[in-house]
Automatic annotation (TrEMBL):
Key words of the record: Cell outer membrane, Fimbrium biogenesis, Membrane, Signal, Transmembrane, Transmembrane beta strand, Transport
Keyword Signal: yes
Classification via SUPFAM superfamilies: FimD N-terminal domain-like (SSF141729)
Membrane topology classification: Multi-pass membrane protein
Native organism taxonomy: Bacteria, Pseudomonadati, Pseudomonadota, Gammaproteobacteria, Enterobacterales
Residues of the PapC N-terminal domain: 37-182
NCBIfam families documented for this protein: PRK15284.1
Name listed for the protein in its UniProt record: Outer membrane usher protein
Domain PapC-like C-terminal, chain residue ranges per copy: 762-817
Annotated InterPro entries: Fimb_usher, Fimbrial_membr_usher_CS, FimD_plug_dom, PapC-like_C, PapC-like_C_sf, PapC_N, PapC_N_sf
Subcellular location: Cell outer membrane
Amino acid sequence: MMSTPLVGAQVPRTRLLPLLIALALVNGQVSAAKPIEFNTDVLDLQERDNIDLGRFSRAGYVMPGEYSLVVNVNQQELPEQPIRFYPAESDPASSEACLPATLVEQMGIKEEFTRQLTWWHNGQCLVIGSLKGMSVRPDLGSNTLFLSVPQAYLEYSSADWDPPARWDEGIPGLLLDYNLNAQTQHQTQNDNVQKGYNLSGNGVAGANMGSWRLRASWQTQIDHQTGSGQPVKQNFEWTQYTAYLAIARLRAKLTVGEDFLNSDIFDSFRYTGVSLVSDDAMLPPNLRGYAPEVSGVARTNARVVISQQGRVLYETLVPAGPFRIQDLNNAVSGLMDVRVEEQDGSVQAFNISTASIPYLTRPGMIRYKLASGRPTDWRHRTQGPLFASGEFSWGVSNGWSLFGGSVVGDDYNALALGIGRDLMLFGALSFDVTQSRARLPQGETLTGGSYRLRYSKNFDQIGGQVTFAGYRFSERSFMTMGEYLEMRNLGTRSQNSKEMYTVSYNQQFRDMGLTANLNYDHQTYWDRQANDRYSLSLMRYMNIGNFRNLSLSLTGYRNQYNGLNDDGVFLSLSLPWGNRGSVSYSGTWNGDDNTHRVSYSDRVGDRGSYQVSSGWTRKGALASGFYSHQGDWAQINATASSQAGSYTTVGLALQGGATATREGAALHRVAIPGGTRLLVDTGGVAGIPIRNYGAPLLTNRFGKAVVADMNSYYRNRVNIDLDQLPDNAEALKSVVQATLTEGAIGYRRFDVIAGEKAMAVIRLADGTMPPFGATVQNLKKRDVGIVNDGGSVYLSGIERGETMTVHWDDRAQCELTLPVVLPVDGMRELLLPCRTITAKADTTDLAAVQATMETK
C-alpha cells in the first residue's frame, strides 16, 4: 500500500529513512487482531505529537467500504468485482471481506461441500471458517483479494483449465472481423497485354448479449479485366446467420440459425434449424478433439482459398513453397474445396475430407449431437424437407465405446451403428456401418450401406505416429443426405463414392536428425475416374563445416483431380545468415515448368518479416517479394512477383477486426473471424505494450487494446511487456488471466500508473501540516505518496491540474489541486495548499501555489 518512487527518481534519503524505520521497529507480534505498537522515539521529527501511523498498526487492515478488486483463487484469477468490507463481528476494530454467494459460485466448490457453508451479515457473506483451511488476504496495493482454498474442496482443474464455475461469459459488445485481399495483374501473352484487378473479402459481423453470440458471415468479390469489354463483376453476400449459446452444465453448445451438420458419423450438409452438440472444447485440453489441417505446395506467391459448399472458410496469401494451414475451426467437418491461385494465373484445385480420429469416449461418459431443421443452400433457400438427426457415443467400459445415430426425414433416412476399441499398445480402432434409404422424386427408392474403418497409433519406440488411417466402402445405392439433396434439386449426383483410403503418417529418425511425413488420399467412384492425392516430405537439420543448423527439405506430391495429374517435387536448402536471417535455395519441378530460386529472408523488429527472391524458369527470369507485418490494428501481408515477358502481379492482404463495448473499443488483428477475444484496459494510458503471443499490441489513445484469437474454455494469460514499458509508466499489475466461453468478449484491467513525479510540501488552511504517515490519493483511490517530516511528500504517477485527497484518521481530511505547470527539475518542490473537502479551491489560490515553487 505504500507508494514507492519510480526507478531513477531523485528522492533525498533523509526524506524516506524516518518512515522506513517507523515501519520496521515494532513491539509485539504482527497480527490483524492486535495492533502494532510503533516506537516513535527513534524518529528524528520536528513535531513528535503530529504522527498518524494508524493505518500501519493493523496488518492487512482495510477500512470498511466497497472496493473493486480482482479475486485470486489459488493463484487463478477471476474477473474484477466489487467486494465489501465490514467491521468483523469478533473484533469491531478490524475488518473482514464479505464473500457473497455470487463469488462463492465462481470458486468452483464441490457440491457436497457447499452444504457445509455458513453465512454472516444477514446471510450475505461467507463465514471463512466454515471451510477448514480457507484463508482470505486483501492487498489493496495490487488491487487483489487473495483466496486460499484447499484443493480437496474444489472441482477438477489443471494448469491451463478451469471448471465451469470459473468460466467468464464476457461483456456485451459488437464486433466486425474482416479478411481483405487485393491483387493487380499485368499479363503478356502473344503480344497481347491484359490488365486487371481483383478484390475479395470475407468476414464476420457479430454481437454479444449475455451468454448469446450472434454472428453473420459475409463475403464479397470484385473482378475487372481492362480491355475485355466486360463490365466490372461484383457481388456481396451474407452467407450465414447464426446464434449460439454455451450450456455449461450440459457441456454442450446450442446453435440456432444456419449451420452445417456437425457429425462424426454422417457427411455434413447445410441446413437452417437448431442443434445441441456436446462441445469437446469444454473438456480439459488433453481430452479435446481433432481440427482439420490443409497442406500443399505453392509454385509462386499464391492465394489459398478454402471453401465449403460455396462459403469461404479461410483465405490467405502464402509465399512460394510448402504451406500448412492448421488454424481452421475444429467445428468444420465434411468435404472442403481448396484452391491455390498462383500469381502466374494457374490454379491448383483439390478436395480435403476432414476425417476424425477413431470415435472413442471415456468410460461412463456420453457425447451426443442433436439437430433439426430444413436443408438450405448458400443463398438461404430451402432445398429439402424437415429432418431430425441425432448421434451418441457411450464409453461402455475401459477401452470400449459404442456409438451410433440416425438422420430422419420425409424421403431420406439413415441409420448408423459402430464400435470403438482402445487397443492400448496397438493403437485405437473403430468400425461403423451406415444404412441409407432415399426415395427420389423420379419414384425410385435406393437402399444401400456404407462401411468404415478408422485407426490411429503412436509408435513411441521408433518415433512414428499414424495420425489417421481410414478406409470406407459405399455401395452404389448408398446415398448421403447431401447426395440425396443434389438428386432431388438438380437431378444429378456428383459424388457417388465407392472406396476411400486415407493415411497420415509421421516418422522421426532421431539418429539421423530426419523427419518424414506421408499423406495419402485415394477416392474411387462408381461412375467416374478416381481422385488421388499423396505427398511425401523429408526434412533434416544438419551441420556442414562452419555452417551450422542447415535445413534440407524435399517434398514430392501428386494431385489427380478430375482425370488431370499435377505432379511436382519441391527441394529447399536453407542456412542461417546474420542474427535472424537466412539464405535459401529452392527448386520446383512439375509437368509444366521448372523453377529455381535463391532467397533471403529476415525479420524486421518484433513485428515484421520479409523474403526476397530471384530465379529463373524455362519461360524467363523472375523476381518476387513477400512481406508480413503484425500491426496493432491488422495483420498485413504484401506480395509482388514478376516474370520477364510474362506477368507482373502485386497483392495485398489485410486481416483484422474492430470490437466495441461499453468499456471501450479498439481495432486489432485477428486470425479466426468471430472468435473469442479479450479487451484489456490500462486506465486510459496509451502506448502500453500488451503481449499474449506473437508481436505485442500497443494500447490505443484511450488505453484500450483487444487480444483476439483467445482459446475458448482455456485459461489464457495476457501480460504487459515490461521490457518495452514507456519511461513515464509503471505497472503495479502486469499479468491478467481469463477463461472465456466461446465467442466471448472478455474484459480485464491492468493497474498502470502513468504520469509525472514531483516533490511537494503540503500545508493546511491554518498553516499547519498533515501528520507524519498521512497518505495522498488520486481520484482512482490509488496512493501516490506518503507524507514525511515537515509535510514533505514525494508524488509519483501524477497529472497536471489533477485533484487529490489527503487521508489520516481513516478518512479523507482535505483536498489539493496540482498546478498546470509542474517543475522540470526533480529537486524542486511544490507548495500545495490543502483545503477541507467541503471548501472549493479558487483560481487565485492555485496561481499563488504556482508562484511559490521554491528550490530546496
